[in-house]
């Protein structure tokens, strides 16, 4: 099992403070606003570093939430790449109080998976989004450009049917240029 380490919560802070009897964290437990602010601005790793305590692995793991799957849109058309699945990932990078941070999954893919590395995946089918059955039916896509850029499979289909695409499909930005391929293992159904 894997656990969430990048996103702190008020519940985790409160449980850690109570378990460790941390003099710096216990006062936060009685002040909801300060507790929420601390959780929002202090990743779990910093909380443990700034308020160290003797905990065994089971006690620490007991505080953490299971890692939830990260969902990414498929950015390839099966008609064009057959058995491959391409994804477009916007790498999450941000600062918290002057310290550089990165998203757990996106930075893992961008910074730590080597070319030809293997990543476990699953495919979640979406029945709510599809092109009209008649390829002659005009389609207008309206939405934020980042969402349209993630619709590369749709763009591929649109290109094949000779429709003009005005935005979102001419280029895909914030992809992972250093990785030319990653072997994805998992169920494709």
From TrEMBL:
GO MF assignments: flavin adenine dinucleotide binding; FMN binding; sulfite reductase (NADPH) activity
GO cellular component: cytosol
Keywords: Flavoprotein, FMN, Oxidoreductase
Domain FAD-binding FR-type: start-end pairs: 1-132
EC number: 1.8.1.2
Cofactor requirement: FMN
Protein name: Sulfite reductase subunit alpha
Gene source species: Enterobacter cloacae
Gene name tied to this protein: cysJ_2
């Amino acid at each position: 099992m894997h656990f969430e380490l990048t996103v702190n919560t008020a519940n985790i802070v409160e449980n850690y403070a109570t378990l460790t009897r941390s003099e710096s964290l216990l006062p936060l437990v009685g002040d909801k606003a300060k507790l929420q602010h601390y959780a929002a601005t202090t990743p779990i790793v910093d909380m443990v570093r700034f308020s160290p305590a003797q905990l065994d692995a089971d006690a620490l793991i007991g505080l953490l939430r299971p890692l939830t799957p990260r969902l990414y849109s498929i950015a390839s058309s099966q008609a064009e790449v057959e058995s491959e699945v391409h994804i477009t990932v916007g790498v999450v990078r941000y600062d918290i109080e002057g310290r550089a941070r990165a998203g757990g999954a996106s930075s893992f893919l961008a910074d730590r998976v080597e070319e030809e590395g293997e990543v476990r995946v699953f495919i979640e089918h979406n029945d709510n989004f599809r092109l009209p059955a008649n390829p002659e039916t005009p389609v207008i896509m309206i939405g934020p450009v980042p969402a349209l850029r993630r619709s590369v499979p749709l763009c591929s289909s649109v290109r094949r049917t000779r429709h003009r695409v005005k935005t979102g499909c001419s280029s895909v930005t914030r992809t992972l240029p250093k990785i030319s391929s990653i072997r994805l293992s998992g169920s494709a159904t």
